[in-house]
Design a protein that fits this description.
Elements lengths: L10 H22 L3 E2 L2 E2 L4 H11 L1 H21 L3 H9 L1 H26 L5 H26 L1 H7 L7 H38 L2
Antiparallel strand pairs: 1-2
Helix pairs in contact: 1-2, 1-3, 2-3, 2-5, 2-6, 2-8, 3-4, 3-5, 4-5, 5-6, 6-8
Length: about 200
Amino acid sequence: MNNSKTLNVSRNTKIVLTGLLMAIVIVVQLMWSSVKIGPTSFSLVLVPIVLGAMLLGPISGAVLGLTFGAVVVISGLTGADPFTNTLLNLHPLFTTLLCLAKGAFAGLGAGLIYKLLTKKLNPIVVSFISSAAAPIINTGLFILGGLIMSNTIAENFAAQGQSVIYFLVIVCAGLNFVVEFAVNLVFAPALAAIVRAFAARGR
């Protein structure tokens, strides 16, 4: 197998592998959603999303990202995620679309970057770039969505005298983004290399 390409598997196998990674995404998100830094939780869920995006392609990455977003929405609806719950109560449609979109585009973006650059650069380098792209896209869309709902953020979450942009970038995204970025950068390329090694051995 050429290690610079996604796994060469049948469509049915790709569906099965995507389904298995979806289950992992759900379990990881539910397990770690209670670990919060500030008002929002940091998540390890981008690791299986990027893993799927690199190994199975951008569509699988997008599906895994949508799964992540759906779990966030459900957690908000049930009250398990108070931050998302408040936003859903005040902006139900926009918040739902934001949760789904930021996850989907994170997976899609990581997969597209890997697919486009994998023939031009060393596959290890591309793995790091793809892994870095996912948290940047996810957090970037979160901040953009928060700015669109700036009045709600200011009234319900930002401390008195605190700007919305400071709250979103520093209080919400700040350390969360750093942790997610570092974890994703370390584990996603390593996991991809391990899976590829087993896949190559089995051929």
